[in-house]
From TrEMBL:
Species classification: Eukaryota, Metazoa, Spiralia, Lophotrochozoa, Annelida
InterPro entries for this protein: CD36_fam
Transmembrane region(s): 18-39, 389-414
Family membership noted in the UniProt record: Belongs to the CD36 family.
PANTHER family reported for this sequence: LYSOSOME MEMBRANE PROTEIN 2, SCAVENGER RECEPTOR CLASS B TYPE-1 SR-B1
Superkingdom per UniProt: Eukaryota
Protein's name in the database: Uncharacterized protein
């Protein structure tokens, strides 16, 4: 029997062997690199972003901290008492007509800046200036309205709340811009309990927020937070608020701040007594609480884990903005006058005693511009998202290379086996 020799593609086989080995090695290398980056890259990106946040003299963050680039607006709506004569002379239910908005651009550059304790603390004053914006208002600054007669205690241009001392974040980033002292005091003396006298972002009272919902602002997904009802609940519903009873405890939804305002009978609440006791709303015609219009909001950017610090309760609140992370916030606050019958004043004889009378409500708001939103995406969101996505892409590419390499290996093994069978059969 004649012997038939089958030629084997030796060179081709060797080349394929080299290819599959290369693919397997590269694939394994990609997977290892991807796994390492999966645990390390996000930390590296966050570390790089975090280094830019602390208040350091001369840095971009410092300049934006001194003069925040995000425009801040103070907007007012006044309550016009339509039936003033009938209300005063006959004790009729007051009819209110809301007039507004009247909008001012707010400027509050920091002055008298002094660093201390190895630059871990910084002190400053923050004089406020307001410029009327006619295009964002329904009328003129000298428009008139009718309300009860009491001093609003306005603060004019150039006024400030005193000296703030805050953490720079250089030693501990989580303390960035947290108030260390106000007027050289680490606590207030307005209230009757240590909890209520804590200085957590405000020189009036402390406050906390809870998650509300997701929002999208200029193409950026945000987590929205708002103060829960418990913040302004009466002590019977929230015992932590017992220290705010000065001198008496009021119903839920309002706070007597006369102790902070030289004894002036000023009560603060959310606009239209939003989330307050129904009796406050029912005492007037013309009030209509609405969460969309009257709730204080705080928006947090969840991807980068950076957040907007917004100290927003009190008449002299402080708006603090992270460089590149301030997206949207609005403080909503209403000023009310506490009416009591006085035997010495004839005009009060027909009035309902202990009435919390709304005079004006305001919104102090800040939202980044389109260009600032674009810059924020470029500097923060894109690198952060890449730090999450890129490792998985590298791992996927590595797995694909390994699969292709294994496929070539299996093909070569099958081909070799078939070649052997052909030789045997021919023999």
């Amino acid at each position: 029997m004649a012997e038939v020799l089958v030629a084997r593609p030796v060179n081709k086989t060797r080349k394929c062997g080299f290819v599959y080995i290369t693919l397997l090695v590269l694939g394994l290398l990609f997977v290892i690199i991807g796994v390492i980056l999966l645990f390390e890259l996000k930390s590296i990106v966050h570390s790089d972003i975090s280094k830019k946040i602390p208040i350091v003299n001369g840095s971009e963050t410092y300049n934006d901290w001194v003069e925040p680039p995000v425009p801040v607006y103070m907007t007012f709506w006044v309550f016009d008492l339509v039936n003033a004569d009938d209300f005063v002379n006959n004790g009729a239910k007051p009819i209110l007509k809301e007039k507004g908005p009247y909008t001012y651009r707010e400027y509050r550059p920091k002055e008298d800046i002094v660093f201390s304790k190895n630059d871990t603390l910084v002190s400053y004053r923050e004089p406020k200036t307001y410029v009327f914006i006619p295009d964002m208002s329904v009328g003129k600054e000298n428009d008139t309205f009718t309300t009860v007669n009491f001093p609003l205690l306005p603060t004019g241009n150039g006024s400030n709340d005193g000296v703030y001392t805050v953490y720079t974040g250089q030693e501990n980033l989580t303390l960035y811009n947290e108030i260390y002292q106000w007027q050289n005091k680490s606590s207030l003396n307005y209230w009757t309990t240590p909890y209520c006298n804590m200085i957590n972002g405000s020189v009036i009272r402390s406050l906390y927020v809870t998650f509300s919902k997701e929002e999208t602002i200029k193409g950026i997904t945000m987590y929205r937070f708002s103060p829960p009802p418990s913040v302004m609940q009466e002590p019977a519903e929230n015992p932590d608020n017992i220290g705010f009873c000065t001198p008496d405890c009021l119903k839920s939804g309002v706070l007597n701040i006369s102790t902070c305002r030289q004894g002036a009978p000023v009560i603060i609440s959310q606009p239209h007594f939003y989330e307050g006791d129904e009796s406050f709303v029912n005492a007037f015609e013309g009030l209509s609480p609405d969460a969309a219009k009257h709730a204080t909001i705080l928006d947090v950017e969840p991807v980068s884990k950076l957040f907007l610090k917004y100290d927003y309760i009190g008449l002299n609140s402080q708006l603090t903005i992270y460089t590149g992370a301030a997206l949207n916030a609005a403080k909503k606050l209403q000023l009310n006058f506490y009416i009591r019958k006085l035997t010495t004043l004839v005009d009060t004889q027909h009035l309902q005693n202990n009435t919390v009378f709304p005079v004006v409500w305001l919104s102090e708001s800040a939202e980044i511009t389109d260009s600032q939103a674009s810059e924020f995406k470029h500097k923060v969101i894109v690198p952060t998202q890449l730090s999450i996505i890129l490792p998985w892409v590298i791992i996927a590419v590595g797995c694909l290379l390994i699969v292709i390499g294994l496929a070539i290996l299996i093909y070569l093994l099958i081909s070799a086996d078939q070649s052997k069978q052909v030789c045997i059969n021919m023999k």
